[in-house]
Each structure stands twice: as C-alpha cells, then as structure tokens.
C-alpha cells in the first residue's frame, strides 16, 4: 500500500472544501444575497458567533460568522444535492479503506509465503575415501602390519555425495538438479555433462543423491603438496544447481560450488575439506545468475 494514501485523502477533502467555498462565493446567487443581507445588518449576532468559535478579532469574526451562517443555510436549502455529494465522499473513503486493507493483506501474504516456502540448500557432503593404506589394513584383517606413510596418500577411490536440505516449512515440488566436477581441464563451472535428475525434499528434511566418483581428482593436489609445490595449487571443484517450485506455485533455484582440499595432519589419516568457491554460490533471492 502507498503509505501516503490517507494523507492524500485528507488533502483531497481540504481542497474540496476550499473549492466549495470559492464556488459558492463566486457563482451562487442565493449565497451572495445572504452574505450581502447580513453584511448590511449590524453584525451583533455574527460577532457573537465569530468570537465564540474563532476568537480572531472583531472583523474576522463578522466575516467568518456571515460565511458560516450563509453556508449552513445554503446546504439546508439544497440538502438533497449535498446528500449525494456526501454519499460520494463516503464511497471515496470506503475505497481508501479497501485499498489500504488490500495492500496490507498482500504484504501479509508475501511475508507468509517467504517464511513458509521451501528453501533448498546443500547442507554438507558425505565422502568415500579409500587409500592403499586402507586396502592393506583390510587385507591384514586386524593383524599387526607395517604401512609405509606414503600409502596414506595413495588414493584408490574417492567419491562425494551431496546432502541436500530444505529449511522451509513446506515441501519442494518438481525439483530437478544437476552436478558436475573437475580437476583442472576445460570444464567451465556451471556447465554439466550429465542430464537432470529429480528429487523430493520434505519440510525441514535432508536427502542424499548418488555418489559422484572422482578418479584422479585428488592426486594432482597431493603431488603438489608433497613433491612438486611449483606454481598455483591445482583445484578440485564440485558444483551443482537445483530448480524447484514451492507449494505457492513460485519457481526457485540455487547454485553452489565447493573446492575440495585434502590434508594430512602429522600422524593422521588423509582428511578432506569442502570450501565454498568463487561467486557461483547464489539463489533466486540474489538474482546474480539466470538459467539459460
């Protein structure tokens, strides 16, 4: 609702009153005759009215008194016409109230939808990381065995599984998503080599999708950190996008991109961190990226 609507209505009423007084003074003969007749009188009764109502001086009281008395008589003589005018004024006031109420209801509806609608995001990542050291431990079946330290960094399998969440109070509708990854190469962030898949997420719930195998993804980073730290550190990235509808029929989308970094604290097993990367983390609330 325009916040100035009540002010505009009050201003309209003041302008209407000014125009009415001007018209009756300039064009209404009966009103002019009334003013002239009372002006010829000694003005005692009008001085009383003027002083009582306005207390603005003797002559001002006379003028205002004459105007008021003649206006009342003019309105009484043409009460049918003024009843119609009053009806239009009431209709205008009623319309103003309806306009105010309509916008207030609209704002409440928008706030309700915003707080209740589904909001999809990537909550976390599950991972499967198997090294040559893990393979040797499994083969030894609990027996004491010596494992060379470098075997902790020799990757046999690495796969990532995003955990999708819905923080809203309503479920998703017609949700579809895509994901991809790269370790070097020419794949551009935001492009996908696979087809869209569907997913449903209940209110305040989390869902997982399939694991994404990343063969050869960690090895360049491990070599850089342990053997050949020249130039820029290689990047291993995973990104995705989800498009979905809320129960109110509005479309939404979210895009995300994470950098995957391996590390091995002294004496510990290989660990994986997921760090938001670049500007490719957005949703329809930000409107930075539009779907092609």
Uncertain spans: 45-59, 288-292
Helix content: 40-55%
Oligomeric state: single chain
Number of strands: 10
Cα-atom Rg, whole angstroms?
40 Å
Form type: rod-shaped
Described by strand count, sense and barrel closure, the largest sheet is: 6 strands, antiparallel
Which series of helices and strands comes N to C? HHHHHEHEEEEEHEEEE
How many helical stretches?
7
Distance linking N and C termini: 35 Å
Helix-and-strand structural type: alpha+beta
Strand content: 25-35%
Mean pLDDT, nearest integer? 77
The total domain count is 2
Tell me about this structure.
The protein is 41% helix and 26% strand. The strands form 2 sheets. Strands 3, 4, 7, 8, 9 and 10 form a 6-stranded antiparallel beta sheet that branches. Strands 1, 2, 5 and 6 form a 4-stranded antiparallel beta sheet that branches. Helix 2 packs antiparallel against helix 4 and helix 3 crosses helix 4. The C terminus is likely disordered.
